[in-house]
Amino acid sequence: xxxxxxxxxxYLNHLEQSLNVFQPHPPAVTKFFGDHVHLVRLTRDQLLLxxxxxxxxxxxxxxxxxxxxIKEGRKDxxxxxxxxxxxxTSISSLDLSRPAFExxxxxxxxxxxxxxxxxxxxxxxxxxSFNITGRLLLQQYYRDAEGRAYISRLRNAETKxxxxxxxYNHLSNRIQLKYIASFLGITLETLxxxxxxxxxxx
Length: 202
Fold this sequence. Notes:
Layout: E1 2-4, H1 9-20, H2 27-36, E2 38-42, E3 47-49, E4 57-63, E5 65-72, E6 75-83, E7 87-88, H3 91-96, E8 103-106, E9 110-116, H4 117-126, H5 130-153, H6 157-172, H7 177-184, H8 188-201
Helix pairs in contact: 7-8
C-alpha cells in the first residue's frame, strides 16, 4: 500500500461534493479534511485490508474500484463492490477495534483518501453539525447492506441479476464477471447464461 500526502486538489473537491449531497459544509470542514486525510494508492489486486487485521480508517474512493470478500476454503465470496465517490471501511472492526472478517481488495488501480477513526471523531467534536452527515452516511451504509442481504436471499439467478441491473447497473459492464457472479452467489457459467438470455430478449 502506497501512501502519498500530496493530494490532488480535485480529489478533495470530489470528497467535498460527495459530502455536500447530504448537507452543505463550511470551508473549515474542507480544510479539516485537507489537513487530516492522506492518499492511498493501490494497484489492481492489491489488498487494502486483510482479514484478521484491525481496520483503523474510513476510505473515500477517488478513482477505481474496491471489493470486500471472505474466503471459504479456496473459494472467494465477494460481499460488496464500491467505486468512485463511495466510502468503504470494515465497520465492525473500526467500531469495536477487533479483527476484520472481510478482506478489502482493489479490483482496478485505485486511489483513496483515508481518515483515521480518531481524526473522524475529532471532526465530529470540532464541527457538531457534521454528526448529521455521519448519521446520513450510516443510514446509506445500512440501506446498501439491506440490499445486499436481499440479493443473498433470492433463489432465482435471473431475478438476482435483474435486481443487480436495477440497482448496480453502473457496474455491469465495468466489473469483471467473476466478481459479479460471486457477489450474486451464482456461478460464472450461470451468470453468462442469464446475460445471454436477457441480451436475446432485448
